[in-house]
Amino acid sequence: MKVEPVFLDSTSVPADLKIDFNVRLALTCNQQWVSHPAHVDLMHTTRHFVVSIDPTGLQPGAHSAYIKAYDVNEVSMKMMSWASVTFLLFLPDSLKRVTCSRCP
After folding, report:
1. How many beta carbons lie within 10 A of that of residue 66, not counting itself?
2. Residue 32 included in any domain
């Protein structure tokens, strides 16, 4: 997953504020089949981290989850951001070929 912080008016923000920008995020998810890091240190640069899916136990079809990010230094722990995760599981048995005796 790619996360990139953006200042609303980036051209008028002093460079030292951008350089000093640092937020430690705690990540949570509402589904057990999604694995992610517990924390991410966010600076004024693009950060990448791995999100993994464990399809064990999931039924064929569409599944969704949300990864939520909270600032660990914020006492109120209000959610700062979230990302939607969508996983489509197709098994070979669910993709059976349909035959038609009247089709060319």
Report:
1. 14
2. yes
pLDDT tens digits for range 32-74: 999 999 999 999 889 999 999 999 989 989 999 999 999 998 8
Give the pTM. Answer: 0.76
- Judged by phi (left if over 0) then psi (alpha if -120 to 50, else beta), residue 20 lies in alpha
Cβ neighbours of 74 (radius 10 Å): 12
Query: How many folded domains does the chain comprise?
Result: 1
Q: Give the CATH number of the domain where residue 85 resides.
A: 2.60.40.3170
C-alpha span between 78 and 98 (Å, rounded): 51
Within a domain: residue 86?
yes
Q: What is the DSSP letter of 97?
A: P
Indicate whether 102 belongs to any domain.
no
Report yes or no: 71 and 5 within 8 Å, Cβ to Cβ.
no
